[in-house]
Amino acid sequence: MVGSGAPAAPASRDPAALAPHSRGGFHVSRPGTVLAAHRLVTARSLPVIILWLCTSAAHAQTVDAVVASHRGGCTTAGVEGLSEQLVRSHLCAFPGAVSEFAPHPNIELTSSRVHPLGTAETVRAVRAAADSQPLRVTSAFRTLVEQYLLYHEGGCGLAARPGRSNHQTGRAVDLSNYSAARSAMTAQGCTQSYPSSDPVHYDCPGPDMREASVLVFQRLWNANNPGDLIDEDGIYGPQTEDRMGRSPSGGFGADLCVEAGRYAAAFMMQTFPVAAAAPIALAPGEEVLGTIELENVGTEDWTGDTRLAPTPRDAASSLAASDWVSPTRVQAVDGVVPPGETFPFTFSLRGPSEPGRVCQTFGLVQEGVTWFSDPGHGGPPDDLLEVCVEVGELPPPPSDGGTRFETPDAGMASADAGREGPGRDPGVGGCSCRASGDGHTPWLWLVGLALAGWARQRRRRAITTSDSV
Fold this sequence. Notes:
By secondary structure, the chain is of the alpha+beta class.
């Protein structure tokens, strides 16, 4: 079933829809929460500087490219990698609130693209029904990307808008043997919502997780695109639709679920302003100070041997500033940071001497032991964070014109215009000072010298001020 019969009601925007499971909704784990053996990595809203952060997509083909290849069809093929990643992310994001009803000896999934994911209540109901009656499941939970395909391909009839389908609630199950299973399913609280128009479709107990399905994608996008963050609000709007179309059909480079390694870090926040549209603008030698805060999500303490470092590994950075440990090491941890705690790496970036754009990636290293991105550890990858700095040309030195003695002398000449007498040459546009002549000449000479010095001092002051801005 594509659109669940009647159009699905708009997903609730009530905060209760994302509240703790005990209140009938879905609790979204906060950054810093360790979920059993898995870690839910989230991206927080970041303050603003002009810092370029970016990652490369794991796969070249986008979801929109898959849609274009299926134009006029009605299939969810081609996005299996991203769909499986979204399913795993649901399980990590809502432990205990969602789970899977298969494998089960009496449950058959008719396709590899059927996801046996559901709310805890739905999973219990379906498994209990299967205990007394074999079930052939043709559809159940549908990921946001799968609904995106069905909605945009154009051949599925009344396909619900992504985020609105009943198959994103975590309560929907379609059965090919719906008639034989009716008694077992209804006994567990599942109902045939559209017995005439869509008899294969059952809705089982549990809260509505449509907003949660949107939220999981938003967080997955942000975790892999820290330089292009979108709102994490569970609402399917223009931002989310645009990023879904641009997502890699085979899945992102990093999951929301990351197995804990001995050495692992999660990005928490930064005070460097972030902008995907422009790099940091610096003059040669100018420095800008900021902080990148990381959380220890591994199993080992961080110590003074835990350092933020530019990558490629052990290569000197042209952005190294005066407060770096060395051109190949940015900063070391101060003290001991146990698992679950955070550390703010505070450092400066210095504009290189030559104009142009310089980009620098960063990673973490435990000196003498390992880099955090090595196999068996939890990252971040060496190239996850990338900072770009734009260095402009130095302005030309200001002209010295107008600071010579002739400038004040010319002013005096205009004040004395038309005056002739001893010591004055009427053929010169200024004052011709001589050792002898009119008794006023020494006084005028001293005044002219003083005014010229004053003018030069003012001009120098103005130049100094403009150079320091």
